Each structure stands twice: as structure tokens, then as C-alpha cells.
Amino acid sequence: MENSSPGDAALGEKLASEILAMGIDPTALLPRGRIDEIAAAIQTHDAAGAREVVKKLAPAAIRRLVRRLFSDATLRANAERFLRRHAAMIEEASAQDREGFLVAALLSSEAGRAYLLLDAASGDLA
């Protein structure tokens, strides 16, 4: 995680705020118990399974985010940059901690929940 710059944290917070401003509550949609389940899937390199859990928990929020990412190029560019950086942090955490506690901690943060929602939404954009 040495390669994360201060801008990364600010970008995560900015995107989390954007999501909240859209009327989407990531904490309510992705409660801690579900975060642990998603983290376990990511820890076993099942990104598609993790994405499916997020889509089942927040289908309307994902559709709203897909529409917003499709129509807002700036948001989409920021989200893509954030997703790349956060995915690298999650990959590193997964490699460092076989138990998956670091991954769960990353995902349960405000930026982590934003990552999960944006990751699921951007998967639907492609």
C-alpha cells in the first residue's frame, strides 16, 4: 500500500460523497456481515461472485450508478481511476493477509463500500 498517494483517499471520499448525494446509502445497502461475505469471495479470487452479491444487495442503486456513469464522463473517469487504485490495494491486502481481515477492513470503509458499488456498476457498463 506504499504506492497510494494522498489523492487516492480524497478521491474515494469524493466518490463516496457523490454516491450519497445520489440518495444511495452504501452503509445500509452493504452491512458489515455482507462485507465479510464479499471479502471472503474476493480473498478466494472470486471477483465475479463478490460482484454478484453486491448486485443482489443493491440492484436499484447499481442501476442508478450505471445511468450516472454512462451520462457523466468526469465521474466515470474518476471512478475508473479510483477502481484501478483500490483494486490494487485490495489485491495487495489479500496477498499480505491470508485470513482476509485486511480485505474486509478495506471494504468496510466508506471508500471500500463506494468501490464495491462502483465496481458492480462499471461491470454493467462494459
Characterization of this structure:
By secondary structure, the protein is mostly helical. The chain has one domain (32-125). The chain is built from eight helices and no strands. It has helices spanning 6-21, 26-29, 32-43, 47-57, 59-71, 73-96, 101-108, 110-125. Helix 1 crosses helix 6, helix 4 (47-57) crosses helix 8 (110-125) and helix 6 (73-96) crosses helix 8.
Beta-strand content: under 5%
Number of helices: 8
Written as H for each helix and E for each strand, in order along the chain, the element string is: HHHHHHHH
Give the class from helix and strand content and strand pairing.
Answer: mainly alpha
Mean pLDDT: 91
Radius of gyration: 13 Å
End-to-end C-alpha gap? 28 Å
Number of domains: 1
Q: Sheet bearing the most strands, described?
A: none
Overall helicity: over 70%
| Global outline | globular
Poorly predicted ranges: 1-6
- Counting DSSP E segments of at least 2 residues, the number of strands comes to 0
In short:
By secondary structure, this protein is mainly α. The chain has helices at 6-21, 26-29, 32-43, 47-57, 59-71, 73-96, 101-108, 110-125. The chain has one domain (32-125).
Helix-strand layout with pairing:
Layout: H1 6-21, H2 26-29, H3 32-43, H4 47-57, H5 59-71, H6 73-96, H7 101-108, H8 110-125
Helix pairs in contact: 1-6, 1-8, 3-4, 3-7, 4-8, 5-6, 5-8, 6-7, 6-8, 7-8
